[in-house]
């Protein structure tokens, strides 16, 4: 089974081809960072327009790299949410048009499910069940993952996500967009102990997060001071240490509470070197194995969407052979597909795009074909 995956939730246009036997065959990505830097953040309208320009060339590139003819593609997976609604609609409209033209199912993929499954792209993937720490620019969650589509949120941020706090603090320090990676690099030159920021929510039980107060603490530390290189590096180090300590300790608590022996870390902040080191210690002390996707698959990419789409399509076909018709067991709704002899055949009675800017991961209508 071979699926092409399309990702356009924010400021990366990405396309990949995944095969259930041979694994990832190709992936192509265009980043809009240079375009948005002048504005200090993502401009949604510009992002959507650029996706329109990039999608078709990237699809051609991914197909060529994978050696795939269009009749070898069994499904077209696309990010349906959450994300910027204009960007999502661009990708959804393109993907569903492509699927209709090719006569294949269109597979809606939840963006966060893609991140959760990204470590399955590696040579030594985790098996279900596992505990996941999902940390990105828009989300910070601890998730009990029992299997495909079986997710239970154990704790999440009450305000800012960790990645959002990184980016906003980086902006205070005068760092260019995107600021998270730049702040982490600057922190390497900072002095330990000059700024000791609070570790939010560690003074009480539970697995919830909060990072808005930490961002404010950094602002207060900078107030009235000359913003020289030494100060910026010291604040960056203190801030990063506070975030890493908080994420690590909450992960320790979640491992203890669930009894899981596998910890998966996903999302853009998962590429942070200090976080990886600290979670390695936590996992070892907890008797757990630690899993990360490679750095390029921590941030938004088409490979995770193609993989998630392939797993969803396989699950829907399995359901059809067991007499489940067009409905998957667990979360998921079949789009543009129905039961037929020999598997799933496109019927295209529904031309809705299914894009959703806000889409809770635990929703009963998560990803689906």
Task: Provide the descriptors you would attach to this structure in a database record.
Nucleotidyltransferase, domain 5, five-stranded mixed β-sheet, alpha/beta, 12 strands, 369 residues, 2 domains, 19% strand, globular, single chain
Descriptive overview:
The two termini are 14 Å apart. The protein folds into two domains: 163 residues, Nucleotidyltransferase, domain 5, CATH 3.30.420; 165 residues, Nucleotidyltransferase, domain 5, CATH 3.30.420.40. α5 packs parallel to α7, α5 packs antiparallel against α8 and α6 crosses α8. β7 and β8 form a beta hairpin. The strands form three sheets. The chain has a five-stranded mixed beta sheet, with helices on both faces. Strands 8-7-6-9-10 form a five-stranded mixed beta sheet, with helices on both faces. The chain has a two-stranded antiparallel ribbon with strand order 11-12. About 7% of the residues have low confidence. The chain is globular and about 60 Å long. The chain is built from ten helices and twelve strands. It is an alpha/beta fold.
């Amino acid at each position: 089974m071979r699926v092409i995956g399309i990702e356009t939730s924010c400021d990366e246009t990405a396309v990949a081809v995944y095969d259930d036997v041979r694994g990832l065959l190709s992936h192509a990505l265009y980043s809009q960072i240079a375009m948005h830097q002048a504005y200090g953040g993502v401009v949604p309208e510009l992002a959507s327009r650029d996706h329109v320009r990039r999608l078709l060339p990237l699809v051609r590139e991914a197909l060529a790299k994978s050696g795939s003819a269009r009749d070898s593609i069994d499904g077209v997976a696309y990010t349906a949410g959450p994300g910027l609604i204009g960007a999502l609609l661009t990708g959804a409209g393109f993907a569903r048009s492509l699927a209709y033209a090719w006569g294949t199912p269109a597979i809606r993929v939840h963006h966060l499910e893609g991140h959760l499954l990204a470590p399955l792209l590696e040579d030594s993937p985790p098996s279900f069940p596992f505990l996941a720490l999902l940390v990105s620019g828009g989300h910070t969650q601890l998730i009990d993952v029992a299997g495909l589509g079986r997710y239970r949120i154990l704790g999440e941020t009450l305000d800012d996500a960790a990645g959002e706090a990184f980016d906003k603090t980086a902006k205070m320090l005068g760092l260019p967009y995107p600021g998270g990676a730049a702040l982490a690099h600057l922190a390497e030159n900072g002095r330990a102990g000059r700024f000791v920021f609070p570790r939010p929510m560690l003074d009480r039980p539970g697995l919830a997060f909060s990072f808005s107060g930490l961002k404010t603490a950094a602002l207060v530390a900078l107030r009235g001071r000359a913003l020289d290189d030494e100060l910026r590096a010291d604040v960056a180090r203190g801030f990063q240490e506070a975030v890493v300590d908080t994420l690590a300790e909450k992960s320790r608590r979640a491992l203890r509470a669930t009894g899981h022996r596998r910890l998966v870390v996903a999302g853009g902040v998962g590429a942070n070197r200090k976080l990886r080191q600290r979670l390695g210690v936590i996992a070892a002390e907890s008797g757990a194995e630690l899993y990360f996707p490679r750095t390029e698959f921590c941030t938004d990419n088409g490979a995770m969407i193609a993989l998630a789409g392939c797993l969803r399509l396989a699950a829907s076909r399995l359901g059809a052979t067991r007499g489940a018709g067009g409905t998957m067991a667990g979360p998921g709704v079949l789009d543009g597909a129905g039961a037929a002899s020999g598997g799933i055949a496109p019927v295209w009675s529904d031309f809705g795009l299914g894009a959703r800017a806000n889409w809770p991961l635990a929703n009963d209508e998560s990803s689906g074909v």
